[in-house]
Amino acid sequence: MHTDTEMLPTVCVLLSAYNGAQYLEEQIDSVLAQTGVNVFLDIRDDGSPEPAKDIYAKYAALPNVRIRYGENLKPTAAFWKLLEDADDYKYYAFCDQDDIWDSDKLVSAVNLLRAEDPDRYLIYCGANRQIDSEGNPLPENDPRYARLPVPPTVIERVLICRGTVQGCTMVINDRLRERVLRYKPDFQKSRDIMTGGSIAATSFLEENVFMIPCRIFPTAFMAATQV
Question: Which structural domains are found in the chain, ordered by start?
Answer without folding.
Answer: 4-225 (3.90.550.10)
